[in-house]
C-alpha cells in the first residue's frame, strides 16, 4: 500500500513529533529518501533531513514531496514550502539514517499486511478470514455490516468487560442495532451513507465511545460498511488511512460477487421486502429517502409485461421496460420473474384513478396488436406491505391473462386488483360451484326471480355495490338511466328486504351480499 504522512506522524508518536500539515488520506507517499545536495523535488517522496542539512540546501526550490526534519533547532514552520513532520532532538541522539530504517521497516510491515489481504481475496477466502487479516493492522476491533444492516461480522480484539449498546448487542445477536445508531450516524455527516472516505463519528453521549466508519460504495450503490470502536485505544489519523486502504481493496472485489454478504442486489431493502423478508423501519426509510419518498406515502404496484404478439414483432422484452420508464420517470422499476417487470409508483405522482380512467377509455380500432399487459394493485399507505401489493398486481395480471380485463387503451390491456378481489377470495377459499353455504338467502331469492322474469336484479345489486354505492357509476356500468336504477333498487327492497341505499336500516351485510352475487353470477 502507499505510505502516508499521517502514518509517518503516528509511527513516530514516541518521539513527540509536531505535525505541520493538514491531516488528509490524500497525502500519499511512495518513496522515502535522505535529503542531500543532489536531491530533486519529486511528488510522493518523503525527504528526511537533519535541521543543519536544510541550511545547505535551497529548500525553497522544493515544490513537491514532504519533509521529515529532526534536530535541536527546528526551522520556522512558516518558512517550509512542503508539508512536514518535525521531530525535536535537543540531545542530538537521533540520526536521519536511523529514522529512515525505522520507517522502511514499518512500511514493510504495512506492505506485508496489504499483500496478505490481497492473497486472501485472490483465493476467495471467507469474508471472516479476510477481516481477521484486516484487523491485525488496527488496535481496535472492527465490525462489517451489509447494505440492509442485518448481516454482522466482527474481527479483532474486544475486551471482556467492554459493553457498548451500538456494538455488544450486535455481536451477541448477530443483528445490527440499526434503530440505535442510525440517528448518530446521520448526525455525524450530512451524507453519512454516501461518503466514500472513512470518517469519525465523535463520542456518543450515551455510550462514551467514538467510532470510525467506512462505507463500501461501488458505482454509486451502497453495499454496506465496516466500522471500528475505540475499545482498546483512541483513534488516530492513521486509522483513517488504513481504513480507506482496506475499503478500496474491498470495493475492488465487489464486482466479483464472491461475498454474498456484501452483494447489494440480494440485500437491497426493496428486494428484501419483495422476497418476503423483514426490513427495519429505519433502513427502509433511508432507502426510500434516496428516491425522495417517505415510509407512509400512498403507493401502488403495477406488474406488466409485453404481450406475446408485441414481443414477436417488436423485439426483446427490454424494450417494454424502456417504453414504460420514459412514460413514468418518477416511478421505480424492478425486474420480476417470467420476463415481467414491477413498477412501484406513488399515488401523488401518478394517481391510480387517473390511470384507470385513461385505460378504461375506448381504444381506437386500429387493428394493431396489444403491446402491454398490466395488472395493478390496490393503493397502500405503508411500504412494509410492498410484497402484498406486488402479489395483488401479479394476481390481477394473471387474471387478465385468463381473459378478463378492466379496459384497453393505447394498445394496453389492464386489470385492477380492486375489480378482481372476489376472484382472489374465491381462489383462496377454494370455492367451487358447490358454495351454497356462503349464499345470502335474499340474493338467492332475487336470482330465482331473475331466472323466471329476466329482471337483472342480481346484476343490479352487484354493479351498485362494486360502484361503491354510487348510483351514477352503477347506472353507467349497467347502461341504464338513473331513474331506472332507482326503480330497480326499490323493487329489490320490496322483494328481498335489502335496502341498499340505507344498509343499516335493514341490517344488510354488504360484503356477504356482494360475495353472494359474484358466486351466483358464476
TrEMBL record:
Lineage: Bacteria, Bacillati, Actinomycetota, Coriobacteriia, Eggerthellales
Domain PucR C-terminal helix-turn-helix, residue spans: 457-506
Membrane spanning residue stretches: none
InterPro entries: CdaR-like_regulators, CdaR_GGDEF, PucR_C-HTH_dom, PucR_C-HTH_sf
Family: Belongs to the CdaR family.
Domain CdaR GGDEF-like positions: 287-398
Record-given protein name: PucR C-terminal helix-turn-helix domain-containing protein
Amino acid at each position: 500500500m502507499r505510505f502516508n504522512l499521517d502514518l509517518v506522524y503516528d509511527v513516530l508518536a514516541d518521539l513527540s513529533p509536531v505535525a505541520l500539515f493538514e491531516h488528509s488520506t490524500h497525502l500519499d507517499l511512495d518513496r522515502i529518501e535522505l535529503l542531500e545536495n543532489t536531491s530533486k523535488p519529486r511528488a510522493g517522496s518523503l525527504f528526511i533531513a537533519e535541521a543543519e542539512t536544510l541550511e545547505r540546501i535551497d529548500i525553497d526550490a522544493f515544490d513537491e514531496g514532504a519533509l521529515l526534519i529532526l534536530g535541536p533547532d527546528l526551522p520556522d514552520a512558516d518558512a517550509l514550502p512542503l508539508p512536514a513532520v518535525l521531530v525535536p532532538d535537543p540531545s542530538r541522539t537521533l540520526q536521519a539514517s536511523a529514522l529512515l530504517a525505522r520507517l522502511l521497516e514499518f512500511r514493510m510491515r504495512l506492505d506485508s499486511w496489504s499483500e496478505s489481504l490481497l492473497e486472501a481475496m485472490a483465493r476467495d477466502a471467507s469474508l471472516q478470514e479476510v477481516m481477521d487479516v484486516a484487523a491485525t493492522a488496527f488496535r481496535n476491533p472492527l465490525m462489517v455490516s451489509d447494505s440492509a444492516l442485518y448481516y454482522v461480522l466482527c474481527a479483532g480484539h474486544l475486551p471482556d468487560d467492554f459493553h457498548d449498546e451500538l456494538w455488544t448487542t450486535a455481536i451477541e445477536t448477530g443483528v445490527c442495532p440499526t434503530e440505535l445508531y442510525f440517528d448518530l450516524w446521520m448526525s455525524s455527516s450530512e451524507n453519512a451513507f454516501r461518503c466514500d472516505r472513512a470518517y469519525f463519528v465523535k463520542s456518543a453521549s450515551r455510550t462514551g465511545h467514538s467510532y470510525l466508519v467506512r462505507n463500501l460504495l461501488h458505482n454509486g450503490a451502497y453495499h454496506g460498511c465496516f466500522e471500528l470502536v475505540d475499545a482498546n485505544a483512541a483513534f488516530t489519523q492513521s486509522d483513517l488511512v488504513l481504513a480507506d486502504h482496506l475499503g478500496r481493496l474491498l470495493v475492488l472485489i465487489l464486482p466479483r460477487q464472491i461475498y454474498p454478504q456484501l452483494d447489494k442486489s440480494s440485500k437491497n431493502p426493496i428486494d428484501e421486502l419483495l422476497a418476503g423478508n423483514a426490513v427495519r423501519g429505519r433502513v427502509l426509510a433511508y432507502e426510500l429517502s434516496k428516491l425522495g419518498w417517505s415510509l407512509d406515502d400512498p403507493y401502488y404496484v403495477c406488474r406488466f409485461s409485453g404481450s406475446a404478439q408485441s414481443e414477436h414483432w417488436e423485439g426483446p422484452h427490454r424494450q417494454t421496460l424502456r417504453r414504460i420508464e420514459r412514460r413514468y420517470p418518477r416511478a421505480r422499476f424492478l425486474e420480476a420473474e417470467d420476463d415481467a417487470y414491477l413498477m412501484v409508483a406513488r399515488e401523488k405522482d401518478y394517481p391510480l384513478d387517473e390511470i384507470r380512467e385513461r385505460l378504461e377509455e375506448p381504444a381506437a380500432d386500429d387493428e394493431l396488436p396489444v403491446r402491454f399487459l398490466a395488472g395493478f394493485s390496490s393503493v397502500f399507505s405503508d411500504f412494509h406491505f410492498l410484497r402484498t401489493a406486488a402479489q395483488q398486481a401479479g394476481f390481477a395480471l394473471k387474471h387478465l391473462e385468463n381473459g378478463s380485463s378492466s379496459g384497453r387503451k393505447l394498445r394496453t390491456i389492464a386489470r385492477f386488483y380492486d375489480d378482481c378481489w372476489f376472484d382472489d377470495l374465491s381462489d383462496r377459499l377454494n370455492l367451487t360451484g358447490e358454495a351454497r353455504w356462503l349464499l345470502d338467502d335474499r340474493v338467492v331469492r332475487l336470482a330465482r326471480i331473475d331466472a323466471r322474469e329476466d329482471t337483472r336484479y342480481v346484476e343490479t345489486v352487484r354493479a351498485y355495490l362494486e360502484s361503491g354505492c354510487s348510483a351514477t357509476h352503477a347506472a353507467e356500468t349497467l347502461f341504464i338511466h338513473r331513474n331506472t336504477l332507482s326503480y330497480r333498487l326499490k323493487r329489490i327492497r320490496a322483494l328481498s328486504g335489502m335496502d341498499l341505499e340505507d344498509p343499516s336500516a335493514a341490517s344488510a351485510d354488504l360484503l356477504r351480499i356482494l360475495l353472494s352475487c359474484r358466486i351466483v353470477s358464476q
